[in-house]
Amino acid sequence: MTTTITLNNGVTMPSVGYGVFQTPPDETATAVHTALDAGYRMIDTAAAYANEAGVGEGLRRSGVAREDVFLETKVWITDYGYDATLHAFDKAAGKLGVDQLDLLILHQPLNGDEESIALEAYRALETLLADGKVRAIGVSNFLPHHLDRLLDLRDVVPAVNQVEIHPYFRNTELLSKHDALGIVSQAWSPLGGITFYPGWGDKGRSTLDDATIGEIARAHDATPAQVMLRWHVQQGRQVIPKSVTPARIAENIAVFGFELSERELEAIDALDTGTRGGPDPSTVNRTDWAREIPEA
Asked: For the domain that residue 157 is a member of, what is the CATH number?
């Protein structure tokens, strides 16, 4: 089992990365340093997380060479539009302390009358790619109809779509769309945390306590988290688990020493409820979701 995924433009990225969603800015540098020490070589952040500077500081503290770490960040919707998105790259690169990003993606789709702003933002990503300022471009939370519209009007097929995928929401229709288009499925909340995160409405059911996942974990002397991450990786997805606990950070990357059977993969697939835990991307707009992104 390879530990990397090849994107549709030939760029490779690690199959397991480290996410910093909801990591407080003052804790991010230490967490990223810990992750790099544990062997991670891919970090995912976003302008809207307000911790890009901490990611950059963590990378510098680690002593790991910049060229050995795959850095991904996201443009927030308030910075959509051709010129604004070009400037969003400058803000992100400045905070991260780098000249080039490995992957830059649009954080959300826009809908209705605002759709054209998102299309212009993606046109800016295409310019950044052509200019060598980013090595790959993509999107996040785009539904099939968002992808269809994008590909009708833009030239570069996204390398990645970062979306909610976990055992309780496999997002199968969208995964099939990605396969047909050559887009890598990148799973946010790969462990299903969105179903039990504080503030998202306790759904009363945690993937970490699921009986099926627990049984598979015991069979492999693994943890439920490792089983879920292995499920993603074996099915060809890229994952960005998040933790600030050193033991769990190390645990989440140790998923290449065992293999799930087809029967086990199918058993996890069967846990899908068809119900997303996060917000519906078809409702995103720049009024309700406004958030100003400060300069570097």
From this structure: 3.20.20.100
